[in-house]
Every structure is written in structure tokens, then in C-alpha cells.
Design goal:
Chain lengths: ~600, ~600
């Protein structure tokens, strides 16, 4: 490989028996065994055992002095291990290196934790990130991440996509999430924004005849962080001209299938199932349902309109209200304590309670149903519940009744929670395989009660279904978008849409969103301009790379698939960014800190 | 290819004769030829000619209405062109499409300029960037850029390098260039900086045992822009452990050779010549000499110490002064006006004048030399000039005498200017081929007179040559670095170094740079920490992608190889970034504008 080493430690095998090799790596463990010293030497490919014999006094003296995480260069002969000293857990486990020379390339102070300690706090790990990254898990995660990106690049390259870089210093358009801003020194009082996505630029590239574009690029959103969010995240961003929605979905479905196959040898289903948004919300209360969970909602809104139980009938008769049942097969054995815990759980999502019925013996009618609410539901309603949910004796049915959003969020989360629970797994309610899904036919607009206006469900550049253009202003709630999300095991891997390529349709959407002509021109004038010069039909998709790799590696957090992530307080514990800066720097940027400003009486 | 089209316009050839094809593209030109309408339809692969016949009345009506840059879908039969209608400049020039259907996918308003107009102002081009990008030149530039990056990725992937993303939101370390800052909302009064390069992170990745890293990534410097600078630029950033300087250079020399071969079929020399920094400065006054120019300096400092001509003897005797001659073969015919122009030219670099001697007949001694200064140079000096420069009759010798920096800059630039001039090309002083070069053995430090201290020539993480560690503090000016630049035709393509991997050497360098322990800890504590945990010997290199592609495409400016560049005022004329932002946004970021602050008496 080089003048310093001939092989990677972890790749030395019995094929090299008898050969002299030079290896560079770190002392993973050092053991004094009577007269011999054993060193497990580690590099990025794994471990190899080095044996140091006291007959070579000088070398042995060096070996005696080394400690964990010293960086060494070792030369020696590849020798077979004998009998029970063979370690079948290691690729190099059938051999060891009988050292003839050991050189300390760099010493190490004692490490603050053992690299194989699996119970480190995240603060410890992020503060000592360099050591944390030496752990096999992090090495594997980042190498898998790389493999995923290379598979994506190869796949897209073969199809004629080309990677084109779009600007990092761009224009602030305060739609959607909060922008990260960058003050301009040359243009006093003005600011760049870091891109939330290359959305508009990739559309411009389509108008500019690049035909097929991709980019694996950083995006930025200054939002309050949750477990699966980072201030900067990486998007596999794609756009193409002259393809239909179906063709775009097929193309990227193949891509994901190939990525899973070529990196983890996982066969995803072919084709992915497709479900429209309305069905997904109806059955699972979610636009990214976890299809591994084998339970679904039964809509009972109609059934509950005339029952005595006010919680149900109130929700059933309310505008935008909804009543659903969630049948839990074999749930009748669930102890009261577990039901109470679920009641608390749905409270997180705004549910005011969690009604349930245990189906002891359905043939007996109300008699056979065990529940505080049975007496407030008339016989017809009870019969309908059993019929529509398909409940069998021994099952339990949970109910949600409230505004649709509360019901969907609460019972949707409950469905997943029960499915993933020990009970759910035992009861066969969880299918532990990869379950991808396309969710399609999203609404164009969501109604935002707070601001009393329609907002774009995806983004304002999403095209409506053919024929829906005329309803954009007259009946926005009925407009369906050519939008699609790829969902895997309850996570959104990516999403996209056919874009609007006609200026007059784009202007209509802006009007539907109450963005007037002047504001549209100010913020998106360059897009409206571009659309007038023969913009082609185009569409695309963006995948969240961090999330895909988190899923593929089975990591708890996207921080485990990012080399140098931020904490949930948006800080880098390694470098202490963000930090204070010189007054001179602020002056050059024509800004000052608010707390540093002079007080005015 | 898809339901909308079967082929790319530019790729339809006689192999498809008789077949019906569907094409999507833009109207490049439309010509009414008597009864027929010809449309040159353009997509990213090129042009194809479409013929519309009035016998198909409906289709013909559409064809009559289309104008330049309309986006069309055309279906028709591939038909041979006859006789002199064949166009050998086009890949599709032997055929035309006899249209059976023409569909307008999108109309276009009249374009503000013809796409094939080569005399557009940069302002026009950047304002209408989307149309500008449709021009074949820009299409080719960005596709070549992509090919270069894919070749780089394939090459590095084969060698086990892996792409690891480093943070965009990082710590401000006001060394080197000015940082772009990003105010933190969550951490009031603190700022992220956009990275000037991933230097420290890639070193940390080596300490973390990733062994071989690369990244093609954006870097940011808030400097005043020159023709070849952008606020954000793209670096091919590489780092490896356990390789020597020579091995690293070999590896990346191969990479560049393969990139040139596989994209442009250009054979660069193998191996690249290597020159040390001192020689480069001595012979060319530059650490990135343009080796195509076949002229070099002759150092005359010693020769001029005792001449009467004060300009020469003063510089020769000054500390840090230098006198050089630049022999211009056959320069004796140069008219006075051209010499005057060069005198003005070197003034840009601080030279106070430009002495010269025309060698009319050297056998005659001073008699045969034509110059205002000859009378102030004694015979010995004149003889030495002729001898050392190797001047022949008919040559001209220019002189530079001043502080070494002024001489190097001025006469170095003059050398290139003359070499590239019509005169230089006629006189055979310019070899029009690719001339790569490694410049090595840079000094560790430069002395900065203004601040009266030593600064790092490359950066403070560069390792000194073996044995030079002890001079870092005692004789910094004598320390040579393990640093190397790759130069091509007078441009620096990339540069790198072996890095310091021992904490005590790093601390010594900080002390040599007058960075005290406290400041070092504050700014670079995380690096010093990491070096203590068995950091491996490591080094690397970074290439400027924009510049490489600019050279490869023969572009005038790096703006021609960037899809959406900024102007020299750091503005995007397309989107009008940077722009003003809402007061609310500023308040959330805990900053205010200086010009908006209340006046205090």
C-alpha cells in the first residue's frame, strides 16, 4: 500500500501466511501473558493480533511501554494461530503477527472512556467526538453513509442525471421554516440566507435545459431541534424534465431498491404499494403510516352521530370532527395499568381521554362488551362497532373522538405504540420487515385556522392534478396535488412533486395563498420570469440522506450518522460553535448585538 | 426514454431512419421556406431539424404559431436529408424529422437576446442566467464540471477514500481570510462561521481512524472579489494517513492526469516536473510559474553591488533587495511604444521603472549595447550581464531592481505578459501545451513587516521538514515545510502538506506565530486535544474545482463554470441576493443593523 505499511490490519488473513507485513494502527488492547505481550492492533478495517517476544529485547521494551490508543507501526511475520487461540469473530482471527519491529508513531494520553463502552452519554460522545468516531459502530455508520451516496451517484449517472451545485449564499424567502441568515459585508444592511432546499434553483435548471439534475447537498433550517433534526442536514435532491409522476416515482423507487440491495443486501418489495393520502389518513391517521403494524382505524363518525355518549356524538357532529375505533386483536387481556398508560400517552397528542371496549363475548351483544361507555351507546351503534371493526371475542377496541387532527395524531400514535410494544409483537401485530409505501394525491392546500388562510401542503410550486387548475382559487380545499412521498416503516424518506411549469398557474397558486402580485414578484419574480420562457414540464424529489442512513443502520438518532453533529441546543460540543466573535467582525458586517446596544430613556 | 419522448433531439441519427420518434425540446430557430416550416429543435444533447408540411393542416397551424424558445413535443418520422441539405456540423445532420404532430408544451415570451449572441455583457447574462445557461457553451461547461467530479470520485473510491461531510455551521477562527458569520438564534450573541475549508475537520477524521477522506465541498471566504474569486467556491478536499509526501503527490498527480485523460482526452506529462520554491522564485519570481513561457530570470544582485547606477546598486545592497535581468530573445526589434507599455504595466506591481538594454552587437562591448543606463554600468558588469543572461545579438534584456517582492511580482508578471503577447508567440517564447509542475519545499513562515511577526506560509498545521522542528522558534525563517502546490500553466490547481501530528510540534508552531497557549487553547483546543490521542502521521491536499474547470474549458472567468455565480460585488443578479430582511428575523437573531441604531448625543 505504501512505504509505511503493506496491508490493513483487519484484512490480514491466512492467505498471507509466512509473509512479512508492515501495519499501522492503534493499540486496541495490550495484554501481558507471562513472557509474551499481545497487542490487538486496530485500523479502519478491523483488528489483528500482534505477538511480541522478549527475545528481541529492544522491540519488547517498546511493546512494554505502549498503552491503549498509541499509534504504532508494526512489522512482523504472519503466523498461524493454533487450536483454541483461533478467534472466529475476526477476519484476521486465524493468524497473528509475530513482531520483528514496533515503532511508536505517536503516543496517547489515557483515554477518557473505553472505546467499547456502550453506555456513554451523548454529551461525552460529542465532546470527545474524535475518539467516539473511532468506535466500530461510528466507523460503520459513516462508511455505509458513503456507500449509499456512491450507489445513488452511480445509479443517477447511468440515467444521465448530472450533479450541479446550487448556491449556499442565497435569498431569504420567509416561507416555511426559519432561515439561517448571513450578513453581507459588501452590501451593508443586506443578508444572504442559507438554502432550506435547492427547490427553486433546481426548477431553474430544468428551465435552463439541463434535463436531469441531482445534488447531494446541505440544507439549513433554523427550527427548534427534535431527535431527528439538525440545523444542517443533507438532501439527495433530484429533478427531471419531461417525465410523468408515475415515471418519476418508478425511477426513484428503483433507486432506493438498488441502494438497499447493493449496500445491505436487502430486497425491498417490487413494486412499492401506493396509497392515496385520504386512505392513509382514514386508515392510519398519518400520511406516513408504519405499515409493519397490522392494525387500522375503523371510521365510526357516521355511526356515532346519534349516540347518547356526548364525547362521541359531539365529535361526530362537529365540523371537522372524527370518531374512530382501533381494534386490537387479543387486546382483551391487556391489564388496566397498560390501558391507563396509553390514556396518558394519547394525552401528549391532545386527546382528552381514551375510551375502550373489551369484547368478551360478542354474541351476547351489550352484555358481552366490557366498558364504562357501553351503557351510553345504543344497541345499533354497538352492533355496528363490532361489525365494522371486525372484532372477535378477546379483542379490545380503543376509540378516538375529537377534531380529526387530534384523533389522527393520538390514535395514529397509539396504533404504532401498541404495534411496537411487547404485547403487539407477541400478538402478531407487528411484521418486522421493511415496508415501503408511496403516499400520493396529497391535497394542494391545508387550511390554517390561526392565520385564517390556505397554506401549501408541500410547497407553493407543486402542480395541481390535471383539471384542478380551475379550482385553485374557487375551491382550494378540493384541489389535489401531483405530490408524492416515499415512506418506509413510518418514516418519510423523501417526497416530491410535479412542479408548476406555467406562469399563469403559478400566479393562481400564489393568489390562492394570498400572496399578492407585488409580493410574488419581490420574492419569486425570478421564477415567474423563468416560467415565461418555455419552461418544460418537470418534477422531482428530495430524499433525506441522514434519515435514510439512520434507518439503514438502525441508529437511535441521526446524530449517529453524522460525523460532527450539533446537539439539540444547536451547539457543537467539540469545537464550541457557535461562539462569540470580535467586535471588529460585527462592525464590518454592519450589525451589532441587541443586548450590547445603548439604552435609551 | 419515457411516455413523452423516445429520444434526445441531438442524438437522433441515420440509425433511426424510418422510425417514428417523439422529441421534446425548444425552438432554436424556425424558418418558413415557401410552403414548408423548418424548426431546429434543441435539447441538452443538441439540435435536430423538424419539417412541417402544410398537408397536415392542424399540425401546420401549430407550427406557424410557434416562436423561438417555445417548448415543444414533436412526433414524426426520421427521414434522410438529401444532397446539400446535409449538415455535417450536427450529429443529427444527415436526417430530419418529418413531423406528424407538434404540441406546444409551453409558450415563450420573446427572449431578450439571441442565445447564439457571443457579445453579451456579463450583467445581461447573469440577470437572465436561466436563458444564458441554455447556451451550448454553458451546457458544456457544467457537464464537463460534472464529469470532472465523477472522475475524481471514481478514482478516489477505487483507492479506498470515502466522502465524509463536515459541518457548514462551524466555529469562527479569524486567521487567514475573513469569515462569513451566521448569527445563532438559540444561543444569543453567538455566531457560527461558514468554513473557509474543512482543514481541521479532515485532520480530526484522520485522528478518528478514517484513514482516507475526501469531500467535494463548498468553502467560503468573505474577501474582496477578483476575476477568479467567488464568495463560495468548491474544493476537492482530500486527506490520508500513513503516506509520505512523495506518495501523496504521486497519488494526486495520477488523479489529475486521469481526469484530463478521461474527460478531454488530454495526456499530461508523466511524471510532472518538481521544482523547489526557492528555484521557482529565483527563476520566475513566482511560486506558480507558467512553464509555457520560455524565459527565466537571471539573478544579477551580486553583479550590481558596485555599479554607479543607484537604482541597481541600491537594490543590490538593500536587505531583502534583488536585481534580475529578463532576457527576451529577439526583443531588440521591440518598438519604443511597446517598451513604454511594459513600463506602465510593471508599475501596477510597484516597480518604479523598467530599465532595459538592447543587445545590438555584443562583440563590441558597451558600444554594441543600446540603453540609457549603459553609461552608468561598468564594463565588468555589462560583460557579466551578457554572460549570465546568455544574451545574443538582437535580444533585449529587461531589468528589475527593488525589494525582492516588487521585483518578483513585476518582472514575473512581465515575463508572462511578453510570453503570451503576439511578439512572444512569434518569437517562439510560448509553448502552447499543458505544463504542470509541482512546487515543493515552501518556507514554513513568511515575515510580515506590518505586524512585525511571522505568519504561516500555508497554514499553521503544516509540518516542518524532518529536523527543522528545533528551529521553529529559534530560526523560523530557515524552516522548510512539507508543503506542495500543483501548478498548471501559471495557475495553482491545488496545494497541500503533511500535517503536524504531534501536539508538542503544533504548540511550538503556535508559539512561533505568537499565538499564546491561552489563545491556542481557545481557538484550536479541540485540535491540540485530538493530537494527544495517538494522532497518526497524515497529510493531504485540496484542489480548487472551479479553477480546474475554468482552465479545462478555456473560460475567461470562473463565473462561466458555476451555474449561479455572484458578481464581483458579491451579488446574485438573478435572485437579488443578498437582500433586506424583516425586522422580526433580526430580532430573533439578537442583532440589529448599525445604521438603524438610535443616535446617542
Amino acid at each position: 500500500m505504501s512505504s509505511m505499511r503493506t496491508n490493513y490490519c483487519g484484512l490480514v488473513t491466512e492467505e498471507l501466511l509466512g509473509q512479512t507485513v508492515s501495519l499501522c494502527g492503534w493499540v486496541h488492547r495490550r495484554r501481558d501473558h507471562g513472557s509474551l505481550i499481545f497487542i490487538d492492533l486496530r485500523d479502519r478495517e478491523g483488528l489483528v493480533q500482534v505477538v511480541c517476544n522478549p527475545e528481541q529485547a529492544e522491540m519488547f521494551k517498546v511493546a512494554e511501554a505502549v498503552r491503549n490508543e498509541y499509534c504504532l507501526r508494526v512489522t512482523g511475520v504472519v503466523t498461524a494461530r493454533i487450536g483454541n487461540t483461533v478467534n472466529n469473530n475476526l477476519k484476521s482471527g486465524k493468524i497473528e503477527i509475530v513482531a520483528s519491529a514496533v515503532e511508536v508513531l505517536n503516543a496517547s494520553v489515557p483515554v477518557p472512556f473505553q472505546l467499547d463502552d456502550d453506555n456513554l452519554s451523548e454529551t461525552t460522545r460529542l465532546t470527545h467526538r474524535v475518539l467516539d468516531l473511532r468506535r466500530p459502530q461510528m466507523q460503520n455508520n459513516l462508511r455505509l453513509r458513503y456507500k449509499v451516496t456512491m450507489e445513488v451517484r452511480k445509479y443517477l449517472d447511468n440515467l444521465g442525471f448530472i450533479d450541479i451545485e446550487t448556491p449556499m449564499l442565497t435569498k431569504s424567502t420567509p416561507e416555511g421554516a426559519r432561515d439561517y441568515l448571513v450578513p453581507s459585508r459588501v452590501n451593508a444592511g443586506n443578508f444572504f440566507a442559507l438554502p432550506q432546499s435547492p427547490q427553486l434553483f433546481k426548477q431553474l435548471l430544468m428551465v435552463a435545459n439541463f434535463d436531469r439534475y441531482y445534488q447531494i447537498t446541505k440544507c439549513f433550517r433554523d427550527e427548534d431541534l427534535r431527535a431527528d433534526r439538525q440545523p444542517e442536514f443533507t438532501q439527495i435532491d433530484c429533478e427531471t424534465s419531461f417525465l410523468t409522476e408515475q415515471e418519476i416515482r418508478d425511477l426513484f423507487e428503483d433507486m432506493i431498491r438498488i441502494v438497499f440491495k447493493n449496500t445491505l443486501d436487502i430486497d425491498l418489495p417490487n413494486p412499492f404499494p401506493v396509497m392515496d393520502f385520504a386512505t392513509a389518513m382514514g386508515l392510519y391517521g398519518s400520511d406516513k403510516p408504519d405499515m409493519r403494524v397490522k392494525m387500522a382505524f375503523t371510521d365510526l363518525t357516521e355511526v356515532m352521530k346519534d349516540v347518547e355518549f356526548k364525547v362521541f356524538s359531539g365529535a361526530a357532529n362537529m365540523t371537522g370532527g372524527r370518531v374512530v375505533g382501533l381494534r386490537v386483536p387479543q387486546g382483551g387481556t391487556m391489564p388496566r395499568s397498560e390501558i391507563d398508560a396509553y390514556t396518558q400517552f394519547v394525552g401528549i397528542y391532545g386527546a382528552k381521554g381514551l375510551a375502550y371496549i373489551k369484547v368478551n363475548e360478542k354474541a351476547k351483544g351489550a352484555e358481552g362488551l366490557q366498558s364504562p361507555i357501553v351503557k351510553n351507546l345504543h344497541a345499533d351503534a354497538l352492533a355496528k362497532i363490532i361489525e365494522l371493526t371486525g372484532a372477535e371475542d378477546g379483542d379490545l377496541i380503543f376509540f378516538g373522538a375529537d377534531k380529526a387532527k387530534v384523533v389522527n395524531d393520538a390514535i395514529g400514535a397509539l396504533r404504532v405504540k401498541i404495534g411496537h410494544s411487547d404485547f403487539g409483537k407477541k400478538a402478531g401485530l407487528f411484521d418486522d420487515v421493511w415496508k415501503p409505501l408511496w403516499v400520493v394525491d396529497f391535497p394542494m392546500f391545508d387550511y390554517d385556522e390561526e392565520s385564517d388562510r390556505w397554506t401549501a401542503t408541500h410547497h407553493p410550486f407543486t402542480a395541481p392534478k390535471d383539471g384542478h387548475e380551475d379550482m385553485l382559487e374557487t375551491n382550494p380545499g378540493a384541489c389535489i396535488a401531483k405530490a408524492y412521498d416515499m415512506v418506509l416503516n413510518g418514516w418519510e424518506l423523501g417526497g416530491g412533486s410535479i412542479r408548476i411549469h406555467r406562469e399563469e398557474v403559478q400566479s393562481k397558486v400564489f393568489r390562492a395563498l394570498k400572496i399578492d402580485a407585488e409580493e410574488a414578484q419581490l420574492k419569486f419574480g425570478f421564477l415567474l420570469d423563468a416560467l415565461q420562457y418555455g419552461a418544460p414540464p418537470h418534477g422531482g424529489l428530495a430524499f433525506g440522506l441522514d434519515r435514510i442512513v439512520t434507518m439503514m443502520t438502525g441508529s437511535d438518532s441521526i446524530r449517529d450518522v453524522i460525523a460532527f453533529p450539533k446537539t439539540q441546543r444547536a451547539q457543537c460540543l467539540l469545537t464550541n460553535a457557535p461562539s462569540e466573535v470580535d467586535e471588529k467582525q460585527l462592525r464590518e458586517l454592519h450589525i451589532r448585538l441587541r443586548n450590547a446596544e445603548p439604552k435609551i430613556v
